[in-house]
Design a protein that fits this description.
Oligomer: single chain
Structural class: alpha/beta
Helix content: 25-40%
Number of strands: 23
Strand content: 15-25%
Radius of gyration: 25 Å
Distance between the termini: 72 Å
Largest sheet: 7 strands, mixed
């Protein structure tokens, strides 16, 4: 059986390991490979290689680092089909979604290609008598990324592209559920001209996570996953003296005002709620129609649209979405559907028990619609992370605004309306980190920044954009003067703020 190994110092590790994890094919439930579950010994080797390579990479001028990023982008695009097939085979998302996963990561690579510009510091001439002050951004040294199963290309690229372009060495710890794509990306980085040891992959589970969080040579850690684990990662990493950004779960809402274009809303919801089987932190699993009439009209249009969704294997070009990642996750999603029904939700379309002919052991969950969900229900309070759309009815604008604002998660939110004043008021007042106005999945473009509020994010700095550059660098400020050599040495030194 195929063994997925670490990728250290430019090649596979070949370390002996007594622990391995199964990697499933979600389309049929079969074990297709095993992944090494490493620990401190593998991480120590990765760190040693990073320490050997990083100083020279940091000393490489930004233009040359950018050229590596340009070539890496070209190679990923040239290998897009291979990467998408690899991703779909382990995750289960359809090929089109897998290509979108990779492309969204490439957009951050494109941003990183401009690193010579974004690394420019600040300069003040004449801050005091004969005194100039300037700042520079320098790499933190070695960074690490702990990435989730749901975006095995995009999130490693979000983290690694900016970190590496800034002059750091970077170690990726991917999810053990779909670990192959990050290894292939590291190989392509090497082919693009990145020195061995600058981008490495360590495979593992919690033992590897803890080793990363505790290792004294790793200066910064970026994490994406569930909120409970994000909180753990943040606290343990900070306690070890690291800079940490830890992105957690989500329960994104879509507010539908009475004047919204419901045909467009339904079309948007079909993709935002059910695309990639709902396994996205920026999915839209809660829709909030404002007013009883809006709710009834929306429901009437949603039912046929959801019933028309095609669930298929990941290679089916006609499928809207494929299987979920594991049998355990399928059971968890179906458990939440049962819980919501028991809590009083009206199960309008029940996706439990869905099977696909010829793939009866696959991890499929049918699209599910639940109406009359209330904020007191546990199924509303928690992240389901599957192809389940809940309808929570609101009487008016303020009640709708309060729902995402008061929820424990604050990743993304959307409002659908033709009213500019309502949209502007909503965007200003809602207690959520990313807002879409007639945009169902408000993931910012790569040169802006990604990050939620409340239990959706721990730490002070967001992903990619200039926030990413700030996270992966540290600022050094220099105050200088050059005496003219005259006998009196010029005026006595005066601190600029005191002059």
């Amino acid at each position: 059986m195929r063994l997925i190994d670490h990728f250290l110092a430019g090649g596979t590790a070949g370390l002996d390991s007594s622990r391995h994890g199964d990697v499933f094919d979600p389309n049929n439930g079969a074990v297709q490979a095993q992944v090494v579950l490493g620990g401190a010994d593998a991480l120590d080797r990765a760190v040693a290689a990073a320490q050997a390579a990083q100083p020279a990479w940091a000393a490489t001028n930004p233009q040359r680092r950018a050229r590596v990023m340009f070539e890496f982008k070209r190679l990923v695009e040239a290998n897009m089909d291979e990467l998408a097939r690899m991703l779909s085979a382990e995750h289960g998302k359809v090929i089109a979604d897998s290509k979108g996963d990779i492309q969204r990561g490439l957009e951050v690579v494109e941003f990183a290609c401009g690193i010579p510009h974004v690394l420019k510091g600040e300069y003040t001439q004449g801050a005091g008598p004969g005194i100039d002050v300037y700042s520079m951004r320098q790499p933190i040294g070695i960074g690490a990324g702990i990435t989730p199963f749901n975006f095995p290309a995009m999130i490693p690229l979000w983290m690694s592209a900016v970190a590496i372009a800034c002059g750091n060495a970077f170690i990726i710890k991917p999810s053990e559920r779909d670990p192959s794509v990050p290894v292939r990306l590291a190989e392509l980085f090497l082919e693009a001209g990145l020195p061995a040891g600058i981008c490495q992959v360590v495979q593992g589970d919690k033992a590897m996570v803890d080793a990363i969080l505790d290792h004294p040579a790793i200066g910064a850690v970026s994490f994406v996953g569930s909120s409970d684990i994000a909180h753990y990662v943040y606290n343990r990493g900070v306690a070890a003296g690291k800079r940490v950004q830890a992105m957690g779960g989500a329960k994104n809402h879509g507010i539908v005002m009475p004047d919204a274009d419901l045909d467009q809303v339904v079309n948007d919801l079909a993709g935002a709620a059910f695309g990639s089987a709902g396994e996205r932190c920026m999915a839209l699993p809660v829709v909030v129609p404002v007013g009883a009439d809006t709710a009834e009209r929306l429901r009437a249009k949603l039912i046929p649209a959801i019933e028309a969704l095609r669930v298929g294997v990941s290679t089916d070009p006609e499928a809207h979405y494929g299987p979920v990642v594991t049998q355990a996750h399928k059971a968890k999603i179906e458990g939440w559907i049962a819980t919501c029904a028991a809590e009083g939700g009206e199960l309008v379309i029940d996706g439990r028990g869905f099977t696909l002919q010829g793939h009866e052991n696959g991890f499929f969950v049918g699209p599910t619609l639940i109406d009359h969900v209330t904020p007191t229900m546990e199924s509303y309070h928690n992240e389901i992370f599957g192809p389940v759309l809940q309808i929570v009815r609101a009487n008016d604008f303020d009640e709708a605004l309060a729902l995402p604002s008061q929820h424990q998660y604050g990743n993304g939110v959307a409002i659908f309306t033709r009213n500019g004043h309502a949209a502007r008021e909503f965007a200003a007042r809602v207690n959520v980190g990313m807002v879409g106005i007639n945009v169902p999945i408000p993931v910012p473009v790569a040169y802006h920044t990604f990050g939620g509020w409340k239990r959706s994010a721990f730490g002070d700095t967001n992903q990619h954009g200039m926030e990413g550059v700030k996270f992966w660098t540290k600022v050094k400020t220099v105050t200088q003067r050059w005496p003219d050599g005259s006998p009196d040495g010029g005026n006595a030194f005066v601190i600029p703020t005191m002059g």
